[in-house]
Amino acid sequence: MTTQLGEGQRQALTAFCDTIVPSVQHDPDPHGLWAASASSLGVPAGAEELILGIPDEVIRGGLMELLDVLGEQGITRAPSQESREQILRNLQLASPEAAAGVTALTGMTLFLHYGAPDPSTGKNPNWAAFGYPGPASPPPQVEKPLQPVVPDDGAVLEADVCVLGSGAGGGVIAGTLAQRGLKVILLEAAGYFNESDFTQLELQAYQEMYWRGGPTPTADGNLTIQAGTALGGGTVINWQNCLRTRDWVRDQWANEFGLEGVDSSDYDRHLDTVLERIGAKK
After folding, report:
1. Beta-carbon neighbour count of residue 141 at 10 Å?
2. Three-class SS state of 163
3. Are 135 and 199 in contact (CB under 8 A)?
4. Short-list 90, 100, 88, 66, CA closest to 221
5. Is residue 85 scored above 90 in pLDDT?
6. Are 50 and 143 in contact (CB under 8 A)?
7. Taking 70 as the threshold, does the pLDDT of residue 116 lie above it?
8. Which residues make beta-bridge pairs with 217?
9. What is the per-residue pLDDT across 166-225, written as a single tens digit (0 to 9) for each?
10. Per the count of CB atoms within 10 A, which of 9, 128, 200, 267 is most buried?
11. 181: alpha, beta or left, given left = phi > 0 and alpha = psi -120 to 50?
């Protein structure tokens, strides 16, 4: 894995970040919000760290290639804010991949500039202008009762059942099977976090407890997905309502998509059982 950007890539990244968040003359500016450019708050260095930390080699390599292209397009030599913005617009029109890359770098820049805390103070310099006080309290010191096993490379583990994922589905399945006497291995790719890790800082939460480190664009770049991921599944982070499926929806599932049984009384019986088990039935 590449450990640092080349000098040309780093200069292009700095120019990109300052194009997204330039220093603007504005009066009044009591907290320095308008005057602070991305580079004045160290955003390019943070963005470099995020890029190099992306585990997916294709995505990481694509963003580094995008920085090369930005350098070739002259973003570091552009004489004005308007000309740098035009370079970005032209690049976004060049291909869907380039547009997705510009969107990803823009998201990184804005998130770091307005969301990342200063290590010395624990607060972002822009929060005062927004009236946001930062984390309300330190996280509670709660012990972690589980002891996950991280197997060595090549280790062989034997079980009656192997369940992939520890979320609302996999966790319930694994627990039910274990209660019935089966030996169960539950595989989880994410880390183990609980209340003691909830620092109320977005950047840390994204890096530790979200799929692909936070907001992830769809293939076409039209939507951004935020999916929690941890031991316990996305339900450690995400929440949901338990709503009874309307009859017309069930009829559509059955008649248009061929899902058998969803439009019958058996469906109601099974749904009632599940809702009662999870304490959601009124």
Report:
1. 7
2. strand
3. yes
4. 100
5. yes
6. no
7. yes
8. 224
9. 998 999 999 999 999 999 999 999 999 999 999 999 888 988 999 888 777 776 667 778
10. 9
11. left
